[in-house]
Specification:
By secondary structure, the protein is of the alpha/beta class. It contains 24 helices and 30 strands. It folds into four domains: 1-114 and 295-359, no CATH class; 189-277, Roll (Pdz3 Domain); 361-516, Rossmann fold; 525-751, Rossmann fold, CATH 3.40.50. Strands 20-19-18-21-22-23 form a six-stranded parallel sheet. α17 packs parallel to α24.
Length: 753
């Protein structure tokens, strides 16, 4: 559905744009040879008054072809033969028509949905902004000289301009119909830090040092393990957390003992002060209905916001404030459309269309990561902002102390599904399981709260949680479910809501029923977080920098060219209830690595690999001789974790880097994609993205198009003429593996390697 809607929307926008060119060309007596919607071969075509009107196969664009527009022909009826102002008007008509379309739909949005006033919803008592006079109910009209029409204006400005400690914040608010000027300096949150990052939350091994802070000035190095602070022995990460809770760091020096190569060393460290400016107020991001001329007013402001946000984003891109990684690619756009559709469908078709146009750490995996002595919170879904805030709050001294006051020793966060992959990569949070394991975390009887946002959420979690003490917490208005506690999560109140959720989980610890607690002792080591940058860095570790170029994928390409590695497979999640969960992923992975094929995995497929121990470096023993040697030299597992399925772009960037460094097209690389247990609608968009990029994709579940010979033929071979790749479907997993290996070898033969 997402892809269909996206194509229809983009096609409608393009059609209106080209209609502008068409009408002005006709007005200026320029001959339009063809007016078409789509690309590729014609499906339907008719000719009238010298113009061919066509509907083409691929709904990916459109055109208004004018006589002589690509030539220097100035004869009558040609584009160059028209008056200068006629040519200018014809060219400008497309963007002007898009602007008109934007305004029309902006008015419809405001009519049906409303607008978002920048109304203050909460002011922290005793804060500097409260002392300056800000009150709940105030409407923010100006912030730091930036005019605020809508709450989104304020959100965008704050996103691009974090407040600074010594900065004076100037605001204008409307109160009782009058403008009130306010000025204040942000409050400052002060913490003292040793200045290092742990390898994972359950480890005291130093992963990296923060330059200019505490430990970076001593002899401590990455790989060292902290064993004591001020003589207090630390046997685990829980001991470390407990020590800091009882002895908060200050500006006073502390003595750190660390272990390296079996020997212990002491270092005196002065904790570094960390200061963060905080504003201490929240504002509304919800929508308010309006009517009459106000609709036109706020429709205009909607268009203004679209233009401002685009210009500000372009400015940040040019100045380096934003990177290309901050932009949504095709999958991101399609996913956003899908989410909007789900949120709007209950309101009727018109609302749907209107809203559519408004647009590496070491950790453990499997159920054994849950801690019977701690408050266990499981995050689940696809919104990384929700899980990020819960992790941030749960790691605070305040919440850890609160958990202890409820009888627990601390707080353990674990994850399932896509959210689990993201918090694993970003924070080293352990994976409790993937899609079909979400009910199992409740069945342990040790889960205080399972917190969900959108997509891949079992409705049965509600009734199941009632059989235990678990709080089933939904956070998205579009995913409220029976037997759940709804706590709406939004950007404006992110910290507040996250704190509420964590506190609720802590309070629920005392309701746990000990007789129902059973945490299976299943736990596997997994090395995660192989972004493109991490892979390149790993490759640099086996590159002779005196002779060879660093910062490239060439070492990997050399392994492939030489035959040490035969190729690579990008394997992507879902679990499908129709087949035995994880078995297809694991069976295929074992077969492929035994044939010297390295695997990049994401989504539920990655978690299947983690649970099976295939992301443990010890899994090298399951590899063929070539891949095993590579794993030993590079110190990597044979299956590389690359995050969530909704960010398949990481894999595509890696493929493009390989193509660039090899001088080949992506379609020529001995690389294939695979989704052996695909299930959800987003898998359709992801699969199409991979195929369209030029990578053959293999499916282990029928895509439900076999009823049409034409559609099946198009997907399995027809698209190959356009993108040099296609789908292959084989439900026998062993045969599917053989076909993947065969395709990789065909690509190698074509390259003469």
């Amino acid at each position: 559905m997402k892809i269909i809607l996206a194509l229809l929307i983009f096609s409608a926008i393009i059609l209106f744009h080209e209609l502008g060119h068409f009408l002005l060309a006709k007005k200026n007596k320029i001959v339009v040879t063809e007016f078409s919607l789509g690309m590729g071969p014609r499906l339907l075509s008719t000719e009238k008054n010298g113009t061919r009107y066509s509907l083409k196969l691929l709904p990916l664009g459109g055109s208004c072809a004018m006589l002589g527009e690509d030539m220097e022909d100035e004869s009558k009826g040609t584009f160059n033969g028209a008056p200068v102002w006629g040519r200018i008007a014809t060219v400008a008509a497309g963007p002007v028509f898009n602007f008109i379309l934007a305004f029309v739909f902006a008015v419809l949005i405001v009519t049906l949905v409303g607008y978002d006033p920048a109304e203050v919803t909460q002011v922290e008592s005793g804060s500097t902004v409260a002392e300056a006079g800000l009150q709940e109910g105030d409407i923010i009209k100006e912030y730091q000289g930036y005019h605020i029409d809508l709450a989104r204006d304020l959100y965008l400005y704050m996103y691009l301009n974090n407040p600074q400690e010594d900065e004076t914040i100037h605001m204008t608010v409307e109160r009782d119909g009058k403008d009130v000027e306010l000025a204040f300096k942000p409050d400052v949150q002060v913490r003292y830090l040793l200045g290092f990052n742990r390898k994972s939350t359950d480890s005291l091994e130093v992963a990296s040092l923060i330059p200019g802070m505490g430990l970076s000035e001593t002899g401590v190095e990455p790989g060292d393990v902290i064993t004591s602070i001020n003589g207090t022995r630390l046997e685990s990460s829980d001991d470390y957390t407990a020590y800091l809770a009882e002895h908060p760091l200050t500006s006073e020096p502390v003595t750190i003992t660390y272990e390296r190569d079996g020997l212990e060393y002491n270092a005196e460290v002065t904790p570094s002060e960390s200061r963060t400016a905080v504003l201490d107020f929240s504002y509304n991001l919800a929508y308010t209905k309006t009517h009459g001329f106000e609709v036109l007013k706020y429709g205009t402001l909607e268009v203004k916001y679209m233009i401002r946000s685009t210009l500000l984003s372009l400015k940040e891109l040019l100045t380096g404030g934003l990177g290309v990684k901050d932009l949504s690619g095709p999958v991101g756009v399609v996913d956003a459309i899908g989410s909007t559709y789900e949120a709007s469908k209950s309101e009727g078709m018109l609302t749907i269309w209107v809203n559519m146009l408004y647009m590496a750490a070491l950790l453990s995996a499997n159920l054994g990561v849950m801690n019977a002595e701690n408050v266990n919170i499981v995050v689940h879904g696809h919104d990384p902002s929700l899980s990020e805030m819960i992790c941030e709050v749960a790691d605070s001294k305040e919440m850890i102390d609160y958990a202890k006051s409820m009888g627990a020793k601390g707080i353990t966060i674990s994850g399932v599904c896509c959210t689990s992959n993201e918090v694993a990569m970003r924070r080293g949070i352990p994976m409790a399981g993937n899609f079909l394991q979400q009910e199992n975390v409740v069945l342990t009887g040790a889960c205080e709260a399972i917190v969900v946002d959108v997509q891949c959420i079992f409705p049965a979690l509600g009734p199941l949680s009632k059989c235990f003490h678990t709080k089933f917490i939904t956070t998205s208005p579009i995913c409220q479910m029976p037997d759940s506690e709804f706590i709406e999560f939004s950007a404006g109140s992110a910290g507040e809501k996250a704190k509420q959720i964590v506190k609720l989980a802590c309070e629920n610890f005392k309701n746990r029923k000990p007789e129902l607690v059973y945490i299976p002792e299943m736990k596997q080591k997994a090395t995660v977080g192989y972004s493109v940058e991490a892979i390149v860095k790993t490759l640099d570790g086996v590159t002779n920098s005196q002779v060879d170029e660093t910062g490239t994928t060439k070492p990997l390409l050399e392994c492939i060219t030489s035959g040490v590695i035969r190729g690579a497979v990008a394997m992507v999640g879902c679990n499908n209830p129709k087949i035995r969960p994880d078995s297809a992923h694991i069976e295929l992975m074992k077969k492929l690595i035994a044939n010297d094929i390295v695997i990049i995995a994401s989504g539920c497929s990655a978690q299947a690999a983690a649970k099976a121990g295939l992301m443990d470096k010890a899994a090298k023993d399951l590899c063929g001789a070539g891949l095993k040697r590579v794993c030993e030299l590079a110190d990597i597992p044979p299956v590389l974790h690359m995050g969530s399925c909704v960010d398949i772009s990481r894999m595509m960037i890696l493929a493009s880097e390989l193509a660039k460094d090899s001088g080949l097209n992506i379609s020529q690389l001995p690389v294939v994609g695979c989704a052996p247990e695909w299930m959800s609608e987003k898998a359709v968009s992801i699969g199409n993205y991979v195929v369209a990029t030029g990578i053959d994709t293999f499916l282990g579940v029928d895509p439900y198009v076999s009823g049409s010979d034409q559609v099946a033929g198009l997907l399995t071979e027809g698209v190959r003429d356009w993108v040099e790749a296609a789908y292959t479907v084989e439900k026998d997993i062993d045969k599917l593996g053989d076909l993947m290996i065969e395709r990789i070898e065909e690509k190698r033969s074509a390259l003469g390697i």
